[in-house]
Write a structure and sequence with these properties.
Helix content: 25-40%
CATH architecture of the largest domain: 3-Layer(aba) Sandwich
Number of helices: 14
CATH class of the largest domain: Alpha Beta
Bound molecules: pyridoxal-5'-phosphate
CATH topology of the largest domain: Aspartate Aminotransferase, domain 2
Strand content: 15-25%
Number of domains: 2
CATH superfamily of the largest domain: Type I PLP-dependent aspartate aminotransferase-like (Major domain)
Largest sheet: 7 strands, mixed
Distance between the termini: 40 Å
Low-confidence stretches: none
Length: about 400
């Protein structure tokens, strides 16, 4: 039996928990920047699954490698070794300039891993007293949805009804390095930040902020940890967003686009001093680092470098932002972004605009009620951006 979009929406709403409020479009096919709903309508994907689709939908090179691996070996768990994981870890270290890596699946798991690593380093290397380790994070952060991670969220809704929460986090205003200096004490193990706050609404910190925080961390023997799950792999116009400030972290967290838009792949990369502290049994994941994930991860990294997606994002991001600046509508409060990571902040609710853009064939989603994020796959062309702008202009 063929189902209509409306029927599938009803079935989904009847049997699925309502932890999302998606646009009512039921997609069935995707290629590059384009997706099709089951009625055959074509849309441009301007969200890219929150930057997980930097490579575009069904990227042929990545899908091909994944299919080959699917016929060979899919899962070993970490009880046994497989022939793809070592090469993935090596590639991650080469690309990030780190010494060791630890694979997981989702972004939240990788953030949890980084927090565990930072705490362990705090106790074993820095000498923090038992159970006293603290990690500093920014107001308005988004690092995932586990209980520990929501414990340091500043969004009430994320925490409401989910306590008791995990202690050990100090929350400071984002973009102000001085407060970090003030809050650091002998129990501080790490500072965890997004280089640009994505879910927070494309919040770009002042120039030099990351570098200043890095310096403060170094002077105080504190780990400088960057969550590049959304900003990494070319999204902001550099391979990693930290490059804008020259502030290489002590530990980097990657996810989303590391899975090439086809599979959940995440990783934490750092020094031997930090990740070398893990002993067998300390931490793990049944699927983390499986041969498919490793194959896809290598293919995703290779593609970003081969196609120079960071440069593409930088150039096309500027081109598109310049066009957006020509929009003449008093509802627009601010347009900000780096590369193809762009936020359009409105003076009122953004959802009606997202709905209107959908009618015109552009899929995007509001964040924090008043902000529309434009983050298309980085393989997008200038002509496709022109196509999008024409419709955005009509809506605004
Ligand atoms: C910066 C950042 N960290 C972590 C996550 C969580 O990733 P996941 O949804 O794969 O758990 C996200 C997801 O939006 C994110 O943007």
């Amino acid at each position: 039996m063929e189902y209509s979009s409306q029927q599938l929406i009803e079935i989904g709403d009847r049997y699925g928990a309502h932890n999302y409020k998606p646009l009512d479009v039921v997609l069935t096919r995707g290629e590059g920047v384009w997706v099709w709903d089951i009625e055959g309508n074509k849309y441009m994907d301007m969200l890219s699954s929150y930057s997980a689709l930097n490579h575009g939908h069904c990227n042929h090179e990545i899908v091909k490698k994944m299919k080959e691996q699917l016929d060979k070996l899919t899962l070993t768990s970490r009880a046994f070794r497989n022939d793809k994981l070592p090469l993935f870890l090596k590639k991650v270290c080469e690309v990030t300039g780190m010494e060791m890596a630890l694979p997981m699946n989702t972004g939240a798991e990788a953030v949890e891993t980084a927090l565990k690593a930072a705490r362990k380093w705090g106790y074993r290397v820095k000498g923090i007293s038992k159970e006293k380790a603290e990690i500093i994070v920014g107001i308005n952060n988004f690092h995932g949805r586990t209980i520990t991670i929501i414990s340091f969220s500043t969004e009430d809704q994320y925490k409401d009804g989910f306590g008791p929460l995990t202690p050990g986090f100090e929350i400071v205003p984002y973009g102000n390095a001085e407060v970090i200096q003030e809050k650091i004490n002998e129990n501080t193990a790490g500072v965890l930040l997004e280089p640009i706050q994505g879910e927070g609404g494309i919040i770009i910190p002042p120039e030099g902020y990351l570098n200043e925080v890095k310096k403060i961390c170094k002077e105080n023997n504190v780990l400088f940890i960057l969550d590049e799950i959304q900003t990494g792999l070319g999204r902001t116009g550099k391979l990693f967003a930290w490059e804008w400030d020259g502030a290489k972290p002590d530990m980097i967290i990657l996810g989303k686009a590391l899975g090439g838009g086809v599979y959940p792949v995440s990783v934490v990369a750092s020094s031997k001093e930090v990740l070398g502290l893990f002993n067998p049994g300390d931490h793990g994941s049944t699927f983390g680092g499986n041969p498919i994930a490793a194959t896809v991860g290598i293919a995703a990294l290779d593609y970003v470098l081969k196609e120079n997606l960071p440069e593409r994002s930088r150039k096309l991001g500027k081109y598109f932002m310049d066009k957006l600046f020509t929009l003449d509508n008093s509802v627009i409060k601010e347009i900000r972004g780096k590369g193809l990571f762009i936020g359009l902040e409105l003076k009122g609710p953004a959802r009606p605009y997202a709905e209107k853009l959908k009618e015109k064939g552009i899929l995007c989603k509001e964040t924090h009620n008043t902000i529309i994020r434009f983050a298309p796959p980085l393989i997008i062309t200038k002509e496709e951006l022109d196509w999008a702008f024409k419709r955005i202009k009509e809506v605004f």
